[in-house]
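Reading group handout, session on sequence-to-structure problems. Before we discuss, look at one worked example. The prompt was deliberately terse, the way you'd type it at a terminal:

> structure ElaB/YqjD/DUF883 family membrane-anchored ribosome-binding protein

The input record follows.
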Amino acid sequence: MSDDNKIDLENPEVKAAIQAAVDEAVKGLKDKNAELINDKKQLKEELGSLKSKVDGLDLDAIKVLLDKSFQDEESKLIAEGKIEEVIQKRTEKMRQEHDKQVKTEKERADKAENYANKFRQSVIQGQIIQAAVEAGALSEASADIAFLAQSQFSLDENGKAVAIDSNGEIVIGKDGATPVQPKEWIESLRENKPYFWPKADGMGSPGSGKSTKKWSDYTEAERASLARENPNAFQQLLKTKET
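And the output record:
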C-alpha cells in the first residue's frame, strides 16, 4: 500500500469514526442483554404468580364446587320440569356403582372358590393315596387311583373324604350307616382293577394278591380298560394268553 493510501490512525476524524463504530456495537450488545434480563424478570414474575395461585388452591373446596355444579344441573332440570330425566340420571349413576361393586365381589368370590376347590382336591387326593398305600396298591398306580377318585369324593364337615354319587349325595357304605371311606372304595377296585396291585405269587399275570388271573379270566372290556389305563400290566397279561 502506498503512503498516499495509508490511514492516519492519529487523525482526529479517523479516531472519531472508529470510536463511533465501537460505541454502536457495544450499544447493540447492551440493548440485547437488557432485553434478556427483562424477559427473565417477567418469566420469574409469571412463575411466582402461578405458584401463589396453585398454593392457594383448596382441593376440598373444588370438590364441593363440582358437586354443587352437579346439583345445580339437577336443579335446573327440575326447574324445567324434567323430573324424569333427573331420576334417570340418578338411577344410572346408582346402577353403575352397584355393577362395579357386584363385579368386585364376584371376582373376590371366584378367586376364593377356585382356591377352596384346589385345596379340597389336594386333601382328597392325599387321603385316597394314603388309603391305596395302606391297601397295598402299586406305587405307580397311585396317580391313576387318585384320578379315578377325584370326581367320586368330597370332604365332609370334619375334612374327611367321603364318596358321593353323580348328584352329589353321600354314598353309604356296606355297614349301612356310615359314608363310604377311601379305604372301602379302594378295596372295591380290586375286582375291576386288579392290575393296580402286585402280581400274585410272582406269576406274570396281574392279580388281587390272593389269586392269579390269566388272559381267559378277563372280559374283552376289562382287557381294553387294562390296555388303556395300565399298558405295562396289559403286556404282562398277554404273556398268560394261551397260544
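Points for discussion. First: Residues 97 and 163 are 44 Å apart (CA to CA). Second: Residues 193-243 form one domain.
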